[in-house]
Design brief:
Layout: E1 4-7, E2 10-13, E3 18-24, E4 33-39, E5 46-51, E6 58-60, E7 68-73, E8 78-83, E9 92-99, E10 116-117, E11 121-126
Parallel strand pairs: 2-11
Antiparallel strand pairs: 1-3, 3-8, 4-5, 4-9, 5-6, 7-8, 9-10, 9-11
Length: 127
Amino acid sequence: QVRLVESGGGLVQAGDSLRLSCVASESTFSNYAMGWFRQAPGKEREFVAAVNWSGESINYSESVKGRFTISRDNAMNTLYLQMNSLKPEDTAVYYCAADWTWRSSFTRHYESGYDSWGQGTQVTVSS
């Protein structure tokens, strides 16, 4: 089974930036859509952003649109989330996820659309 490993989380101040990475264990990564979700304490996990296999279809939640950028490097089997202008409400555990639908032209914004998940990386934004 493909493993996903996130990194890049940390403690930052409001207004700072962070870049999260998610490395997949197999090169088949390049054929599948990927997404980022997050879960804040006491809340349900929520969609953040997603990109299809080719990078041509990208979607963001309204809460991060204009501040976060999702991207992928298929040669490196790596998914990224560049987070700028961070706010305290962005504090959460961030998870990457893979949708094992072969070369889908679109992305999904719901958890059940994804088949594999990483272990998560903590992002804490202080005010």
